[in-house]
Design a protein that fits this description.
The protein is about 10% helix and about 25% strand. By secondary structure, it is mainly beta.
């Protein structure tokens, strides 16, 4: 019996793969509440891997397991843990788009939120994480992050495979899957009925990479790794020192996509009315006799995330979109947004406001067997600089006024390079998969 329990535990760890687990417990408050201060509790960030994948916070010391918050980070980093008094997670919104100059993800925060007949008029401003360099030095390549979200650099050395491909081409890279144990829940000392855990987002940005053959024990090489940005180096003669700028838009995970508390649904039902007119402030733009679309607590609903600064003349309601108040003038798909960015629709990108964003969801994470979708890709034989963002998505339908009463959340996520788990093969009777956690 003990052996059987141990086997099951090993299976749950998703081994023979790269496994990363991150735990956080932080205080939060909701998009609509005008609170100025919020306390943060202690939280841990623990990361573990199996053979073939090594982790580092300083670009020099490579290990299988580390505590990201306490591990030694490189000098001049811009990591942000929100562990000071009067700090906490403040609702933001993002489609994961990158600012290539600052190597930072673009986020937007509430500029103003005014109650209107059928919801709330939204104004937003871009978070300033792209103008001030660390230490006030113009020579620093690290830009200071804004307030209200977690951000940190994580270096991953992937020794899988033999060749290293300097070119930035996903076809040369390996599939990475989100661990099925990944979850976001209310912390033990939080409040479980508020639903704040259902509006968390975690974004992963690949900034750049070099060959894993680079000896990072050499200070010059370590600095090369830690200072990687979205830009590629011009030194093609020395492959290990050639930096490949990646700078892809973030892959964003939406946990609990099919979970909603009834309190959030009730708030939506009370606030939202079908919108028919362009003036967001006019009562004539809403139909009292026609409520917004019906929601339930077990169905996934889209998030219309903010793609740019939104002003008074934009006439945006937080409930705009086919899935809610049925008003479509302010919403677009990500495909339409990307097409505009590529220049096929000149000037249209700047006019787009809310984007129906296709997150990587828990539903996708839990798909078993051959249909399991990949989460992202990493180059073999490489050292990749990742920047990880954790925020509360203000445009999520679960982010209502009372969600902040949940107070504290716990986040646990990980990666694997294996598509299949032992549980995908119920008749498997071979040896257990080894793990460094045994």
């Amino acid at each position: 019996m003990k052996r059987r329990k141990k086997n099951q535990k090993v299976r749950n760890l998703i081994t023979l793969c790269a496994l990363c687990a991150i735990l956080l417990s932080v205080s939060t408050y909701a998009w609509f509440i005008g609170m100025k201060t919020v306390n943060v509790t202690e939280f841990d960030i623990n990361i573990a891997t199996t053979e073939g994948l090594f982790l580092s916070m300083d670009g020099k010391d490579w290990v299988y397991t580390l505590d990201a918050k306490t591990a030694h980070a490189y000098d001049g980093n811009a990591n942000q843990w929100l562990d000071q008094p009067k700090q906490g997670l403040i609702p933001m919104s993002s489609i994961g788009e990158m600012d290539a100059t600052s190597s930072r993800m673009k986020l937007y925060e509430k500029g103003s939120l005014t109650a209107v007949t059928g919801g709330y008029r939204l104004l937003s401003s871009q978070v300033d994480n792209h103008t001030k360099q660390v230490g006030g030095s113009t020579s620093s390549k690290e830009y200071v992050e804004g307030d209200g979200y977690i951000a940190f650099d994580l270096f991953v050395k992937n020794l899988s495979g033999n060749p290293y491909y300097p070119e930035n081409n996903v076809l040369n890279e390996e599939a990475i899957y989100l661990n099925t144990n990944s979850a976001v829940t209310v912390a033990l000392d939080g409040e479980g009925k508020a639903g704040i855990e259902n509006s968390v987002r975690v974004g992963f940005v690949q900034l750049g990479r070099v060959s894993a053959a680079l000896d990072t024990d050499v200070p010059e090489n370590q600095k090369l790794v830690t200072s990687m940005t979205c830009a590629s180096s011009a030194d093609d003669a020395d492959e290990p020192k050639h930096v490949t700028g990646i700078c892809r838009d973030a892959q964003i995970w939406e946990p609990n996509d099919t979970k909603h508390v009834q309190n959030a649904i009730n708030w939506y039902n009370e606030s939202c009315l079908e919108r028919t007119g362009s003036d967001v402030n006019s009562s004539a733009s809403y139909t009292d006799a026609t409520p917004c679309k019906t929601l339930n607590t077990t169905t996934a609903y889209p998030t219309y995330a903010i793609s740019r600064t939104i002003g008074v003349d934009d006439n945006v309601n937080i409930y705009d979109g086919t899935a809610y108040n049925k008003y479509t003038a302010n919403t677009n798909t990500l495909a339409e947004y990307n097409a505009a960015a590529e220049g096929t629709q000149p000037g249209q990108k700047g006019a787009m406001k809310l984007i129906e964003f296709p997150y990587f969801t828990d539903t996708m994470k839990n798909v078993a067997g051959k249909d399991r979708p990949q989460f992202m890709t990493l180059a073999p034989n490489s050292i990749t600089k990742l920047r990880v963002y954790v925020w509360i998505e203000g445009q999520d339908i679960d982010n209502y006024d009372f969600a902040s009463l949940g107070k504290k959340i716990t986040i646990n996520f990980g990666f694997t390079k294996e598509r299949y788990n032992q549980s995908d093969f119920p008749d498997y009777d071979g040896p257990d998969v080894p793990t460094t956690n045994e």
